[in-house]
Amino acid sequence: MSEWKEYKLKDVCLKIGSGAIPTGGKNSYKLQGIFHIISQNVLDFQFSRDDLAFIDDEQAYDLRNVTLEKDDIL
């Protein structure tokens, strides 16, 4: 028997979400700006910096409710 305790995510998380994309999707990404984490960057046990997506200040403001915070789990 495992020594790990099992919990439901809803019992240990303050917020569970699936993220968001800016209006216009991939076509609205910029060449530089604020880094926007997309699902392709999140891999098993690692984070890929390949094909980084960037958004501008206005897009970041619109997505402020899905900002990554310290100790967040992806």
Using only C-alpha atoms, the radius of gyration works out to: 15 Å
Overall 3D form: elongated
Structural class: alpha+beta
Tally the beta strands.
4
List keywords for this structure.
74 residues, alpha+beta, Restrct_endonuc_typeI_TRD_sf
Question: What layout of secondary structure does this protein have?
Answer:
Blueprint: H1 9-12, E1 34-36, E2 42-43, E3 46-47, E4 53-55, H2 57-62
Describe the protein in words:
The chain has 74 residues and is α+β, with helices and mostly antiparallel strands. It has a domain at 29-68. Helices cover 14% and strands 14% of the residues. The chain has two helices and four strands. A two-stranded antiparallel sheet has the order 1-4. A hairpin with a 2-residue loop joins strand 2 (42-43) and strand 3. It comes from Candidatus Brocadia sapporoensis. One of its GO terms (biological process) is DNA restriction-modification system. InterPro entries: Restrct_endonuc_typeI_TRD_sf. This is Restriction endonuclease subunit S.
Give me a quick take on this structure.
The chain is of the alpha+beta class and about 70 residues long. It is about 15% helix and about 15% strand. The chain has a domain at about 30-70.
